Amino acid sequence: MEPGNNTSVSEFLLQGFSEDPELQLLIFGLFLSIYVVTVLGNLLIILATISDSHLHTPMYFFLSNLSFVDICLVSTIIPKMLVNIQTQSKVITYAGCITQMCFFLFFVELDSFLLAVMAYDRFVAICHPLHYTVIMNPQLCALLVLVCWVLSALHALLQSLIVLRLSFCTHLEIPHFFCELNQLVQLACSTTFLRDLVYVAIVLLATGPITGILYSYSKIVSSIRAISSARGKYKAFSTCVSHLLVVFLFYSTGLGVYLSSAATHSSHSSSTASVMYTVVTPMLNPFIYSLRNNDVRRALKSLFGGKI
Predict the structure, then answer these.
(1) Sheet holding 11-14: strands in order across?
(2) Domain for residue 217, yes or no?
């Protein structure tokens, strides 16, 4: 294999978390359980939203899209990891690695954009309640989701094209449990310009959703403070709690991984921290939205004939 020639790269090695057979068995069982819970939990949210006419509102339309994206996100990374543990193989092909990275970027960015759209929905509901149904009409909701999908796809494609131009040296072991963009860039022995271009693209696109969320909630806080009654303030704020929890989990862990890895370059600690926003957050989303939401709980009870 010639150093610096990315056309000669045929496969990468995913190191995962541990080479200890007993620990690998534990990891297999843990991630399989998380995967099943994540898929079933988010699928129940989607079915509840579809089946209950009371949930045919913009907020739950966006929530069902978020649940679908979360299913796709975990399905992009966990099955391959489980197969590698089961077959005791660390190999992932070059094409498979780039494909996994592309879809992972796509669904993570889509998660980010949908959270920003959901923040805008809460902003309109609290700051302009009398005009909510007019502003958040079905056409606008569908358009917002479509824009999210298109922007995410374009960004993932752009990042993948940049990575395809990177040259990789002989060291092709990825100290991670999936083909994460940051790890691939660190493995590359190309010029710093291409590597820096990847980070610039990430920062530019991540800035948009974060700015939108911060702006929406700054307006929401101002509106809530203007409400005279304590009960009114509590009722308005309670509609945002679930979304705020999801936003905090997603961005605090996601940004923490990239910032800490850039500062310390500790790949193993980065892979462990990545579990939070790639696996744990999608699993917790259905619980966060259902446990605090009477409408969702009622829809789930109706879906199962009142047996839960």
Answers:
(1) 91-93, 11-14, 173-174
(2) yes
pTM of the model: 0.88
197: in domain: yes
CA distances from 72 to 195, 213, 290 (A): 27, 23, 20
Per DSSP, helices labelled H in the chain are 21-51, 58-87, 94-127, 132-135, 138-164, 181-187, 192-226, 230-264, 267-275, 281-291, 294-303
CATH number at residue 202: 1.20.1070.10
Nearest CA-CA partner of 143 in 126, 162, 120 = 120
Q: Considering only residues 154 and 171, tell me which one the structure prediction assigns the higher pLDDT.
A: 154
Q: Which helix (H) or strand (E) holds 13?
A: strand 11-14
Measured CA to CA in angstroms, residue 166 lies from 34, 163, 169 at distances of 34, 5, 10
**Pairing of the two strands 91-93 and 11-14:** antiparallel
Exposed / middle / buried, residue 66 (Cβ in 10 Å: 0-12, 13-18, 19+): buried
User: What is the rounded distance in angstroms from the CA atom of residue 128 to the CA atom of residue 119?
Assistant: 13
Residue 210 falls within a domain, yes or no?
A: yes
Helix (H, G, I), strand (E, B) or coil at 93: strand
Report the C-alpha gap between 104 and 162 in whole angstroms: 15
Distance, CA of 112 to chain centre: 7
pLDDT digits (tens, 9 = 90+) for 125-163: 999 989 999 999 999 999 999 999 999 999 899 888 888
pLDDT tens, residue by residue, 88-103? 888 888 889 999 999 9
Q: Cα-atom radius of gyration of the chain, to the nearest Å?
A: 21
77 contact partners, CB below 8 Å, separation of at least 6: 100, 104, 177, 178, 278, 279
Considering Cα of 27, then 28, then 30, then 31, what sign does the dihedral take? positive
In the numeric block, which tokens belong to residue 287? Answer: 């619980």
Structural domain boundaries enclosing 293: 6-303
